[in-house]
Design goal:
Elements (H helix, E strand, L loop, with lengths): L1 H4 L7 H8 L3 H10 L4 E3 L5 E3 L10 E3 H8 L3 H9 L5 E2 L8 E3 H8 L15 H11 L3
Antiparallel strand pairs: 1-2, 3-5, 4-5
Helix pairs in contact: 4-5, 4-7, 6-7
């Protein structure tokens, strides 16, 4: 009966925090501020609606981007400020994340940077490098 009331697409706090790689408290904050939609079960438990347009498996932290590109974390920050890398921010206080596709474009030399520290011609190989740099 409960399964009829609650959509199978909803995420438990444990699953959502694992997917988005944040602490459960961060999810609660996002729910309170409207970053992510929260649905309460009949028993009062939180369930989270996945954020539309964001695939959690396609997000990287800055240090993971730096590792994939073989540059310093500060370099990633500079490239972000200069517009060569785009970041995803969920709210004003969250850590910046980067999309795998954007990092792959930088590895293949098509992000506007003339001299990335590591350059790979094959996009599939570049994607494999980026995904290896992703932790957890």
């Amino acid at each position: 009966m409960l399964s009829e009331l609650i959509s199978p697409d909803l995420l438990t706090p444990k699953l959502a925090s694992g997917l988005y790689r944040v602490r459960p408290q961060t999810l609660r904050t996002w729910g309170d501020t409207g970053v992510i939609t929260v649905v309460r079960t009949p028993g009062g438990h939180r369930r989270y609606v996945p954020i539309p347009g964001i695939d959690p498996a396609e997000l990287l932290y800055g240090r993971e981007v730096a590792e994939a590109l073989n540059v310093a974390t500060k370099t990633v920050q500079v490239w972000t400020i200069s517009g060569h890398l785009r970041r995803v921010r969920f709210d004003d206080h969250s850590t910046s994340r980067y999309r795998v596709g954007d990092v792959v474009r930088c590895l293949t030399g098509s992000c506007g940077r003339d001299h990335p520290a590591r350059k790979v011609a094959d996009p599939d190989e570049a994607r494999a490098i980026v995904l290896r740099a992703r932790r957890g």
